[in-house]
Amino acid sequence: MADFKLSARQKSLSIWALYAIGLLPGLYAFYLGIFGGLGADPVREFEHRLGLWALRLLCLGLAVTPLRDLFKVNLIAYRRALGLLAFYYVLAHFAVYLALDRGLIFSSILGDILKRPYIMLGMLGLVLLIPLALTSNRWSIRKLGSKWNTLHKASYIILAAELLHFVLSRKSFTLEPATYTAIVLVLLGYRLIRPKIMAAKRKNSARMRAT
Amino acid sequence: AAPLTGKPTAYKVPDKLTPKKDVTTYNNFYEFGTDKSDPANNSGKFKPTPWTVEIGGLVAKPQKISIEDIMSSFTMEDRIYRMRCVEAWSMVIPWIGFPLSALLDKVEPLGSAKYVAFETVVRPDEMPGQSGFFQSINWPYVDGLRLDEARNPLTILATGLYGETLPNQNGAPLRLVVPWKYGFKGIKSIVKITLTEKQPPCTWNILAPNEYGFYANVNPKVDHPRWSQATERRIGESAGLFGGARIDTLPFNGYGEQVAGLYKGMDLTKFY
After folding, report:
1. Helix count and strand count (H, E) for chain A
2. Mean pLDDT (whole number) for A137-145
3. Burial level of B214, CB count in 10 A (0-12/13-18/19+)?
C-alpha cells in the first residue's frame, strides 16, 4: 500500500466529509419519500433503507481492523465516524418504525417488541449502541483505558444482532440477506482467528529484527 | 396487455381502488426476481401467448385448453377484491375473470377428487428468477385448494385487471384469485390443474411449514411466527411518507360471511 500521509488538517476535513457523505443516503431517501419517489409502500421502503445503511456502516466500521492487519490499509481515523453514523441510522430507523410505521400506538408497539424476536434483536442492537456512542470521545478513551476496548467489543454483538434482525424480518432467505450474512460471518470470524494471525506476525517481525 | 371487459357483478368491495401503477409495479412473483419491482422490470421477455392449460387427474374429461378457448368459453366478470399479502400489506384490485367452478364443471371431477392442485410455468429463458446461482424456490411454484374452497363462488381464475388482459408481472395469462387467503395462494401463470385425492404440496408450505400453512386464510388472530397479522398497510393510500396509517386486518379478509362455513369445527390456529 502506498504510504501517503494526510496532514492533520486534511485528515480532520476528510472525517467531516465522511459524516456529510454518510448522511446523504438517508437525506436522499427522505427527500424521495416526501415527493412520492419511494414506490408503492414509501414508509416501509424508507424504514428499510435506513436500516440497511445502518447495517452497511456497521460492517464498514468492523472492517477497519482486518483491513489494517491484513492489507495495511489504515482507516482507524474514520472508525468513530462510521460507528456514529451507524448509530444515527439505527436511531432514525427506530424513529420511523415508531412514528410512521406503527403510528405511535404504544400499546401495539410494546406487544410487537416483546413478542417478535427480530424486533427484540433490533432493540438489543440499539440499546448496546448507546453506551458506545456515549463513550466515542477522547476523554472516555483516556478515562476508561483498557476497559474502553472491552466495552467496544460489544460492537460484535451489535453487528450479529442487527444482521439477524435483518434476516428474520424477510419472508425468505434471498440473495441479499445471504450476501450480508456472508460478509458478517467473515468480519466476525476474523475476530476468532485474529489472535493467531497477530501472534504469527509478531513472531515473524521478531525474526526479521534478529537476522 | 389488450383491452378486456367483464360483465358487471355484485362481487365488489366498497374500498377505494389501489392505483393501477401500484398494482402493476409492486409484486411478489419470484420467477422474475425477489424484489417487489423485479416482476415489472424483468418480465418483458415473457410470452403469455400461445398458452395451454392442462387439466387432469381425477376428472371424467381431462383436457388441454388454450387461453383463447378459455376466453371464449367462459363469461368474464368484473370482481373488485381486497388482496392481503402475508407480508402485512394489502391492495384493492379490479380483476376480470371467471369462477373456477365453471372450469371444474367442464372437466367433471370424479367423486374421489378432494383437492385441486395448480402449477406455474417453468421458463428459465423468459423468467430470470428461475435461473442463476441463488435459487430460493424449487420450481415449478405449486399450490392447491380443497375442492369446496375451489368451488366457492368467490374463487376465480383471473385473465385481466383494470380493463385489460393481465400484465406479465401479475401472472399472465391466467392466475388464481382467492380473496380470503393470503396473496401467495394466488398462483400465477398457470399451466396445469390437477384434481387429487390427497392434499397437494404448496411451495411456501414446503419452504417453511411452521410459517405458511396449507390453508393460509387471512386471520388477524394468528400471527406469522415472526410478525403480527393484526394490521396491514393499504398500498397507495399515500404516495409520500405521511398519512399511510395501518388499518385493522379482518378475519377471512372481510369475506367471513361467504367462507367461514367452509371451516366449521376446524381449529384455525392449528390449520393456519
Report:
1. 9, 0
2. 91
3. buried
Report residue A192's pLDDT band, with 50, 70 and 90 as the boundaries. Answer: very high
pLDDT digits (tens, 9 = 90+) for A21-42: 999 999 999 999 988 888 888 9
CA distance A66 to A156: 14
**Which of B65, B6, B263 is closest to B145 using CA atoms?**
B263
Considering only CB atoms, A34 lies closest to which of B208, B241, B244, namely B241
In CATH terms, the superfamily for domain B20-207 is Oxidoreductase, molybdopterin-binding domain (3.90.420.10)
Burial of B66 (0-12, 13-18, 19+ CB in 10 A): middle
C-alpha cell at A149: 476496548
- CA–CA dist B79, B157 (Å, integer): 11
Return the pLDDT at B147: 98
Contact B13, B80 (CB under 8 A): yes
State how far residue A35 is from chain B, nearest Cα, in angstroms.
Answer: 6
**Interface contact B241-A118, CB threshold 8 A:** no
Instruction: Pick A41's closest partner by Cβ from B26, B208, B223.
Output: B26
Question: Domain residue spans in chain B?
Answer: 20-207
